[in-house]
Amino acid sequence: MIIINSKSIIKIFKYAIGAILSVIILAVVLGGLLFAFYAITAPSLSEDKLRAVNSSLVFDSQGNQIADLGAEQRESVTADSIPVNLVNAITSIEDRRFFEHRGIDIFRILGSAVHNLTSNTTQGGSTLDQQLIKLAYFSTDEKDQTIKRKAQEAWLSLQMERKYTKQEILTFYINKVYMGNGYYGMRTAAKNYYGKDLPELSIAQLALLAGIPQAPSQYDPYTNAEAAKGRRDTVLAQMYNYGRISEKDYQEAVATPVEDGLQALQKKISYEKYLDNYLKQVIQEIQDKTGKDIFTSGLKVYTNVNADLQRYLWDVYNTYDYIAYPDDQMQVASTIMDVTNGQVIAQLGARNQDESISFGTNQAVLTDRDWASTMKPITDYAPALDTGAYTSTAQATNDSVYFWPGTDIQVYNWDRQYYGWMTIQTALMQSRNIPAIRALEAAGLDQALKFLNGLGIDYPELLYSNAISSNTSVADQKYGASSEKMAAAYAAFANGGTYYKPQYVNKIEFNDGSVKTYKPEGNRAMKETTAYMMTDMLKTVLSYGTGTEAAIGYMPQAGKTGTSNYSDEELDIIAAETGLYTQNVGTIAPDSNFVGYTSQYSMAVWTGYKNRLTPLYGNGLKIAAQVYRTAMSYLTGGYSDDWEMPAGMYRSGGMLYLDGYNSNNKNYYTPPKASRSNHSQPTTSSSEAKSSSSQEKTSSSDNKVSASASSSALESSTETSISSKETTETPASSAKLDTDEETTDFDPIYSSTPATGTGEAVNSISGNTSVIDSD
């Protein structure tokens, strides 16, 4: 039996205590050494940092300053103008022992540690000093809150307390904090939220201002009034608990609506209004690329904007000097891009924008409107050519009775007519729907979606209705099309097949003197031969087809029109509300678009109304092409180089063929020998040439066929007389459709009145006679 006497216990206890003390002392020493090391490497305390506005300068493509972002969003307050109730509100909610500690509050740190260990919620231990140092020197991102940063914050806080008075430190903080909606400093917020200076505000209003810096977006009284009231009332409760306001003041303040005294936001801006939409994208790109807040980071940002062109575009939108808009409410959104590198040189998202709103809605990048037949080149024909399903612009296609694959729902052209066999060049020029859908079938949904992805356009699933429509209803910028996306996609046709991601910023100089230059982000999206064939076909749209309104003399350019349509139910609503009927005004549409390009620039234009049920009709359907023509004429001066044919193909009879494919191949369409055409397009009869000015019609976005549907392969054009329905139908179970409506697609007339008479052409494959569209 082991006997331990009292002396042994005391001895063991002494050893244990000594060991514990040794560990504590060692930890303190090591911690002190580590703190000293971090302190040595900390930035130098600077009043310029504590006071700095940190606005960013923005420059155009020529290096001229066009904006000073941040400088006009802050109005500093002097120490003697700060209301006592604001001081009480801030210290009550953020740092109640502010006037007692010397930069670090040990009691608060220990209290926060205990709270965080015993509660499911977390509580910060930073003093107002530390928060100010963080705002002035360090990132506020949670992932950047390292031991090193916390040590340096503490060290600089201690230094600041020795150098400045409590009143000065509190003034720095009040002028530094972000208050939401682009405002920095509590005086700025007071003047813009309430139209008053700080001393004129009530206790309830001051309490709201004191509570906002913790989460400016979350506690925004304009967009989240309930959360803002909750935060304000928490501040008031703390003020009351610490005896800084009376019970009467507390009760009156919490009973006050949080919206009390708020005025409409009127931001002061430090740039010309015509730059607003472009700068909004610059701000977003800066955030995406650097994580920096342009309003506080003191950056020099060099953009790609052509300021003269941007101003000119603004004038085109907002005056009647260039375009005869039907009214002031009609909207336009467009993007102009340098096709050689993806640089966005101009962008404007609306007409008659509210001058009091900064960085408002930019329709030019939103995807909630339909780009209609402008999708046909990138969704249908280019994928068919690039995959080898089609090998020539003379490829034969049948504009005949057609049903969505796997259904008994018929698809129509704008005129509900079918004109039989024609080349894909003629089909695209006239914007026929059935040939476009056949091209998508030939390429395959999976291959077409992959092709679109390579052009920066995505869908959750590709639908057969996407052959003739962008088919989207949300503006999240992820799926579907926008003027930005369409300008970038068509730019790949213009430059020989390379897709460049749209780029607004080319260089950033940071406030530490470092510089970051951004090069174009490009990838091969299609073969050169595909791009050239598409350009060759799209030239005819402006020469003889639906886009003659956009033509600029004899300048080489290419493009495509697109006009969406209403469902029958929507037409009934419009007729009831406006008295407009298609029978008396012709085509009625929610969206009209034009996407065009030269060898140097691409431009995509959307037109419509904010309320989709306010229709375009008559001259309003021509505005998109007119805006394109006006802007592109200004930009190019009416001159642009033509494209050069790449290797791997040849021209025969005006049509393009890949090497190795005979122009006499039976898969290619042969026009009748007795052609009356006076044009240089040998594959179109005179009736076809006239039809180039006919109307198109785009599909309703309601008619969707699932991308998961297994479609039957498009029958070869070598097949003889077989009905279109027999050629394309698959069992109904293999395809989904979310509507039972018939589908049509249309584009408005951009050129002459349709001629009468018909032209006939003999299908060189089967010998069957079919009527060719003679409009």
TrEMBL record:
Localization, UniProt: Secreted
Sequence ranges of Low complexity compositional bias: 680-725
Biased composition (Polar residues): 750-775
Keyword Phosphoprotein part of the UniProt annotation: no
Domain Glycosyl transferase family: 63-239
Main localization category: secreted
Domain Penicillin-binding protein transpeptidase intervals: 335-632
GO cellular component, one term: extracellular region
One Pfam entry name: Transgly
SUPFAM superfamilies documented for this protein: beta-lactamase/transpeptidase-like (SSF56601), Lysozyme-like (SSF53955)
Renumbered residue ranges of the record's region Disordered: 668-775
Catalytic activity line of the entry: Preferential cleavage: (Ac)2-L-Lys-D-Ala-|-D-Ala. Also transpeptidation of peptidyl-alanyl moieties that are N-acyl substituents of D-alanine; [GlcNAc-(1->4)-Mur2Ac(oyl-L-Ala-gamma-D-Glu-L-Lys-D-Ala-D-Ala)](n)-di-trans,octa-cis-undecaprenyl diphosphate + beta-D-GlcNAc-(1->4)-Mur2Ac(oyl-L-Ala-gamma-D-Glu-L-Lys-D-Ala-D-Ala)-di-trans,octa-cis-undecaprenyl diphosphate = [GlcNAc-(1->4)-Mur2Ac(oyl-L-Ala-gamma-D-Glu-L-Lys-D-Ala-D-Ala)](n+1)-di-trans,octa-cis-undecaprenyl diphosphate + di-trans,octa-cis-undecaprenyl diphosphate + H(+)
Gene3D superfamilies hit by this protein: Biosynthetic peptidoglycan transglycosylase-like (1.10.3810.10), DD-peptidase/beta-lactamase superfamily (3.40.710.10)
Keyword annotations of the record: Carboxypeptidase, Cell shape, Cell wall biogenesis/degradation, Glycosyltransferase, Hydrolase, Membrane, Multifunctional enzyme, Peptidoglycan synthesis, Protease, Secreted, Transferase, Transmembrane, Transmembrane helix
Record-level GO BP terms: cell wall organization; peptidoglycan biosynthetic process; proteolysis; regulation of cell shape
Positions of transmembrane segments: 12-40
Entry-linked InterPro entries: Beta-lactam/transpept-like, Glyco_trans_51, Glycosyltr_51/Transpeptidase, Lysozyme-like_dom_sf, PBP_transglycosylase, PCN-bd_Tpept
Source organism superkingdom: Bacteria
A GO molecular-function annotation: penicillin binding
UniProt entry tagged with the keyword Transferase: yes
NCBIfam families to which the protein is assigned, alphabetical: PBP_1a_fam (TIGR02074), strep_PBP1A (NF038272)
Family: In the C-terminal section; belongs to the transpeptidase family. In the N-terminal section; belongs to the glycosyltransferase 51 family.
This protein's name: PBP1A family penicillin-binding protein
Species assigned in the record: Streptococcus cuniculipharyngis
